[in-house]
Amino acid sequence: MRIVVVGVGNLGSAIVRSLMRSYAPKDIVLVERASDDRDALSAQHGCHVVSELSEGLRVVAGDLLILSVKPQDAAVACAQLAPFVSPDAIVLSVMAGVRIDTLAAILNTKRIVRAMPNLGASIEESATGYYYGGDTLTPSDVEHVEYLISHLGKRWRVEREELIDAITAVAGSGPAYLCWLGEQIERVAIEFGISPEDAHALVLQTFRGTALYLEQSGQTFSELRRRVTSPQGTTDAAISVLSERSADVVVREAVGAACKRARELGS
Ligand SMILES: NC(=O)c1ccc[n+]([C@@H]2O[C@H](COP(=O)([O-])OP(=O)(O)OC[C@H]3O[C@@H](n4cnc5c(N)ncnc54)[C@H](OP(=O)(O)O)[C@@H]3O)[C@@H](O)[C@H]2O)c1
Q1: Which atom of ligand 1 is nearest to the CA of 176?
Q2: Residue ranges of domains in the chain
Q3: Which long-range contacts (CB under 8 A, 24 or more apart) does 182-186 make?
Q4: Which of 60, 117, 176, 217 could be stapled to 86 by a disulfide with Cβ–Cβ 3.0 to 4.6 Å?
Q5: pLDDT band for position 58 (50/70/90)?
Q6: How big is the CA angle at 243 (ends 245 and 233), to the nearest 5 degrees?
Q7: Around Cβ 153, how many Cβ atoms within 10 Å?
Q8: Is the dihedral of CA 97, 103, 105, 109 positive or negative?
Q9: What separation in Å is there between the alpha carbon of 56 and the centre of ligand 1?
Q10: Are 71 and 266 a contacting pair, CB within 8 Å?
Q11: Residue 167 and residue 150: Cα distance in Å, rounded?
């Protein structure tokens, strides 16, 4: 199977880094418009890098086309690609919001999977949700797609396409929420007099230790939080402020806004 990646930006290059661990460079083709970036990508990965698809480079049966351009660029990019994409090829779109119907109409194929990875993909630690219509792919196509998605990290198949927008809001944007929280705690740590380097390392190790502990213990977020929150203790003092200020409502509104935006990008 040949894999053609269109849109080698933040997420596209994270995906390529992961794929390079499991696929031979000869099986991967990158489509990159900027000539300087083409040279750099070619030197970095040793795979074929082109400026565009052409009659000499069509995406055909057995190939998998990954679309990772910005949603705003999707229509133009797909219109450019369409003459060179066979209806037998499999298309894997990681673009937020852009619906399968929209892609199918431009690319003239129904063999489309939508996936929503996150930046963890660059170290094979993505949380990826994916969706495909029931009768559009053969079992062997599904095996190919799931094999590829598995190389990005952990995966969850959803039964309804609109749930991809929810996964976009939760996991696609999720690393940014955690980084935002990290920034806030780090800033307070520095105000307390901890050096910036130590503040960063302390917060990072706290995230890491918490995630690993949760994974290994099987506890829920709520269980672990209750365990480390003694009544009238220090953590309780912090959680009380968060509750009094209705931080849960703010989080719901924030993630809800991301989901709404994903739907808007699709239209
Ligand atoms: N970043 C994330 O964490 C994340 C997470 C989940 C999903 N996504 C989705 O992933 C997609 C890409 O996001 P990103 O953050 O990686 O964006 P990005 O860094 O802007 O990358 C997009 C890339 O696509 C290229 N491109 C645009 N039109 C093209 C065309 N017609 N042919 C070839 N290349 C083209 C751009 O090239 P130029 O620089 O030349 O314009 C750029 O290199 C988006 O749809 C987003 O919704 C991103």
Answers
A1: 3
A2: 3-159, 174-266
A3: 182/207
A4: 60
A5: very high
A6: 120
A7: 18
A8: negative
A9: 24
A10: yes
A11: 17
- What is the Cα–Cα distance from 114 to 72, expressed in whole angstroms? 16
d(CA 26, CA 9): 21
State which of 5, 6, 11 you would mutate to test the pocket of ligand 1, scoring each by most atoms of that ligand within 8 A of its C-beta: 11
Q: What is the mean pLDDT of residues 242-259?
A: 97
Structure tokens at 241: 């402020």
Which CATH code for domain 174-266? 1.10.3730.10
Residue 142 near residue 157, CB atoms below 8 Å? no
Q: Which two tokens stand for residue 267?
A: 């239209």
Task: Give the pairing type, strands 112-116 and 48-50.
Answer: unpaired
Pocket around ligand 1: residues whose beta carbon is below 6 Å from it? 6-12, 31, 33-34, 68-71, 73, 76-77, 80, 94-96, 116-119, 172
Q: Tell the residue number behind the tokens 């960063």, with chain if given.
A: 200
Q: Atom 43 of ligand 1 has which residue's CA nearest to it?
A: 9
Burial class of residue 48, CB neighbours in 10 A (0-12, 13-18, 19+): middle
Quote the CATH superfamily of domain 3-159: NAD(P)-binding Rossmann-like Domain (3.40.50.720)
Quickly tell me which residue has 């991301």 as its tokens: 258
**Ligand 1: distance of its center to the CA of 6 in Å?**
8
What confidence tier does 228 reach under pLDDT thresholds 50, 70, 90?
very high
**This prediction's pTM:** 0.91
